[in-house]
């Protein structure tokens, strides 16, 4: 009786792991409409690129962590076969868009537990080719296999898709805090501006606030510009110890903090729609890293929809709860703003590969890999976020530029 | 051309009594015999105190609108946009996803009072809510 009436005191990740492991390689495939390659093929390409980037070879890898697209099970086994690898540690994760950061966290845990040394993490999808390449495909191929859909309390009331699920949260935030469509539009416009500086980004046309407001309605309060892109593409990262990283090709990017939180009671419960799992996930990551939100030089936030950026700005403590709209509308998110955010264009304008591109962009910013128009000046700390399972699962990663 | 059918529930063993009551025009909820909590969706243990002792209790059918969306794009041939779907906060405490039946969708507001009505899908009665 009354076994779990109140939540136990929060645990925090072990500070002894702060900076002990690093991301040493990143790679991606072509993004956008990439016909003629499967999701596995795209990921294979991204993993090869990440290994080349790290200067490591096949013999160095003994861990593999994947998140498959929704239509492929035992994904890590399929990838291992393509890579020609047996592994001391391997698995496939099921936390939706929180999985990519979780794979990095799990890699750290596995290496620290002595289970493996070098872990290849990644995700690939062929969403445009598989479900969106033409009208007949759109109408006939479900986004998610029917057996994975809820069998009741969903479709019979007319509820379909992730757009509507997230739009519910936006509607509540607007009602509670006066958040406006202009605020959401400011996010879409800022990220599009970043995408125009990124040759790999899917979106090539400028987006003004006026054009944003004329976007095709999908599910109010979201129009097409509030929604992330349908993408073929893949990304991969390589994790190993910071000690080993010192001898490798790239400036190491240290994994200084991480945290997860999962609102398993669901999106409708409590105030989960406007006080998301990002808050407690972030508190853990900041506590582990020993820094505060104001120390972050660039944030790469999971932007499946504009609103999710807005609430995360509040939940992570970059502004007060309710002030995310004015904060975004102030221009803070642009590359030369107070908090340069989604500097590659994000999932709204670069491409949606379930968060792995956000990790890659965080790493590249901390390597100072870009010329001046794309580079956040003197970036030392980056926050990367991921969330998934229709807004239930959240993971946070704080990265620091390593010593030369 | 086949007739267009609205999706209907595929109940789990735990939810069969809920759907059977719906077919009789009654909205029922599980209520814990020990801690008094109502919950949804139906399940074998109270999610608050984990008690296995609970009963089905009729809901009043009164609620408020926690959040809502208006579909503008057609996702399913049986659902012609525009139409509203909301998270309905039942007076008893649980929240359920529901069709929001309203003559003027522009007048829907978070927090507004709602009452139970029913939507017919083939042989199924599906709970829905409307402003009043």
Q: Given this structure, which CATH class of the largest domain in chain B is correct?
A: Mainly Beta
- Tell me which CATH architecture of the domain at 17-129 and 231-244 in chain A applies here: 3-Layer(aba) Sandwich
From the alpha carbons, calculate the radius of gyration of chain B and give it in angstroms: 16 Å
Q: Which fold name is given in CATH as the topology of the domain at 17-129 and 231-244 in chain A?
A: Peroxisomal Thiolase, Chain A, domain 1
Cα separation of the termini of chain A: 56 Å
For the record, what CATH class of the domain at 17-129 and 231-244 in chain A applies?
A: Alpha Beta
Give average pLDDT of chain B, whole number.
Answer: 95
Question: Can you characterise this structure?
Answer:
The complex is a heterodimer of chains A (404) and B (132). Chain A is of the alpha/beta class. Chain A has a domain at 17-129 and 231-244: 3-Layer(aba) Sandwich (Peroxisomal Thiolase, Chain A, domain 1). In chain A, 34% of the residues lie in helices and 18% in strands. Chain A is built from 14 helices and eleven strands. In chain A, helix 2 links the parallel strand 2 and strand 3 (89-92). By secondary structure, chain B is mainly β. Chain B has two domains: 13-58, no CATH class; 60-132, Beta Barrel (OB fold (Dihydrolipoamide Acetyltransferase, E2P)). Helix content of chain B is 6%, strand content 39%. Chain B has one helix at 16-23, and strands at 28-32, 54-58, 62-71, 83-90, 95-100, 113-121, 124-131. In chain B, the strands form two sheets. Chain B has a five-stranded mixed beta barrel. The A-B interface holds A 1-5, 151-161, 164, 167-169, 171-172, 174-176, 216-221, 265, 268-269, 273 and B 6-12, 15, 19, 34-35, 41, 47-51, 66-73, 75-76, 79, 82-83, 85-87, 95-99, 109-111, 119, 121, 124, 126, 128. Strand 5 of chain A pairs antiparallel with strand 3 (62-71) of chain B.
